[in-house]
Amino acid sequence: MAKKRIRSEEIDEGNPYLASQDSLGEVHRTPDCVSGFYENSVKPLLDKILAFAGLAVLSPVFVLISLAVYMDDPGPVFFTQKRVGKDKHFFALHKFRSMKMSAPHDVPTHQLSDPEQYITKVGKFLRRTSLDELPQIWDIFCGKMSVIGPRPALWNQEDLVEQRELYDANSVLPGLTGLAQIKGRDELEITDKAKLDGEYVKILRQGGFKALFFDVKCFAETIQSVWNSDGVVEGGTGEKNRRCAVEEFEKISTEKHRRLGKTDISLSPLGFGCASVWGKDMISDQQAQDLFEKAYELGITYFDTGHSYGNAEERIGKILKTSEIVKREKIVISTKFGTRNVNGRLVHDVSPEWIRESVDMSLGRMGISYIDCLQIHGPQISDFTEELYGVLEELKEQGIVRAVGANSFDTEVLEFICREKRLDFVMLDYNIMRRDREELIQRLYDNGIGVVAGAALAESLYSNRVFKIRGKKDIWYLARAMKNFRKQLFGGWKYRFINQVDGVSGSQIALGYVLDNPLISSAVFGTTTMRHLEENAGAVGVEMPAGVLERIRSI
């Protein structure tokens, strides 16, 4: 690949990697951007040690995978692809072959018209678990790659290579994972990827313990993305051949919205859960805003959060204040009260004073004048006093709250609410693994109480993804599953077949089942990745393959 000159107008005045440009257009680097002892000596040594240990420990796995690949589709076990290495020199990157021998070479999967026809059965498993990436440990041992660094570009990705040149990111060894993997992986725009790769180079060349600790941090924080079951489409945008609302479905129209009980509130069929994991530092403010805005663009206008969900309400407030896309009057916001922070601990509190204070705090955090839906979070039967009902009615009369409800997965509490008929709606656990809720949902509906389906994806127990621990987010999801789905925790295998249905994903089937119940006003799901958001949004209007619903109901 010919080295492209950088035009003067392309020089970023705030770019620390570019100091000046001569009359021929060549860029001169500042002394701070020159590689040092850590990059030239310590980092390569650590790469060698880690790669050698990885090859030794994983050698039995290499043998088993090699046999499986060959038996599934006879031919070479390894797949090599021309990639751009350090200083834009090409090198052969190694992977376990996951595609048939007849598949086009050097073409990213997402650019194939029908990639599924080329992927082998073993290949699907390897990609889902990222085991196809293991041979790159050999590339690291040979000094062609590093454990941490910019992901190697395809030989024909001139746009990415050119952008990286602006930030000197082509002058380091490509890596198995890097800063871009923390910030969004292949969902990032090329320009954003290049800037993040440049940020890594800047820190790397500061050298010393700071560079070492940052490498360790990158590895620890991105292993959850590199080794998760979602996979990465190298050289692409992170999109796979799946249904997603942006390309294959019409946006969710207001005609499809569903009334919430007897209220005058209509909810989008799908709701976006801005829950605890969304309100922590596991994702950045910008990632949170991008997800929120994308959900809105996809027609999701119901957003569920809570007072105790970290800084989730503050993030929503920032989005409503700064977003040029999301309009307050176009969305329905649901939040919760019932927990109070006391010396770092969340304690249950439904006193009238705390209800009013909690509501005031939520309004202030989000910068709004009213709350559409207010829920008591995890109530006990003893909480439902005339005093509590009085405060809730007062908030409605004052126009501060439009509808009041409860968020509970406790059957006794839900039965009590159904009998009392004092609330406008409930959010309960309803999904393909909680079909026993359907009789209760019918009675709630008959009593004029709207029903929102929480945990609509059953913590993805049907895919076994919840048991794959790759980082903080996964620990949080598993803990929540153990709390809310103890009885169903190990029963997900019965539903694994929904992940194998042609033309529709497992999550779309799971959400589609919930939406097939006309008594459900909205099905709420949460995610921290753009691809999952778009995939889940595709559940609205999805045409369920024949026999799938019947098979689910027969379990």
UniProtKB/TrEMBL annotation:
Question: Gene3D superfamilies attached here?
Answer: NADP-dependent oxidoreductase domain
Transmembrane regions listed in the UniProt entry: 49-71
Q: Which UniProt keywords apply?
A: Membrane, Transmembrane, Transmembrane helix
Gene Ontology MF: a single term: phosphotransferase activity, for other substituted phosphate groups
Chain ranges of the NADP-dependent oxidoreductase domain: 269-555
One Pfam family of this protein, by short name? Bac_transf
InterPro entries tied to this protein = AKR, Bact_transf, NAD(P)_OxRdtase_dom_sf, NADP_OxRdtase_dom
CDD domains per record: AKR_PA4992-like
Domain Bacterial sugar transferase: from-to ranges: 43-226
PANTHER family documented for this protein: COLANIC BIOSYNTHESIS UDP-GLUCOSE LIPID CARRIER TRANSFERASE, SLL5057 PROTEIN
Family per record: Belongs to the bacterial sugar transferase family.
This chain's protein is named Sugar transferase
Identify the taxonomic lineage of the organism of origin.
Bacteria, Bacillati, Bacillota, Clostridia, Lachnospirales
